[in-house]
Amino acid sequence: MALSITEDIRSITDLKRNTNSVLEQIHKTKRPVVLTVNGKAEAVLLSAEEYEKIANAFNLLKFLVPAEEDLNNNRYKEARAFFKEFKRDKKISG
Question: Distance from CA of residue 43 to its chain's centroid?
């Protein structure tokens, strides 16, 4: 989803005049469009599908941060040791 500075930076005025074209571009390229006001970035427009992908990835990342902290602080067990203890605690044989 690399940004193309020649295609993906558009003014708000351009968006107002060419809304359908901008929306088609977003859906076709799967890239966001940076909207500018007076030459400065003001907002980013992306498809609902791409937004959902980003939101899902971010939510998944929130689960990984505590796990990484646990690893860094040696708060983990090797899988073999975990399952051995789990089986013993649950009285599972085999």
Answer: 17
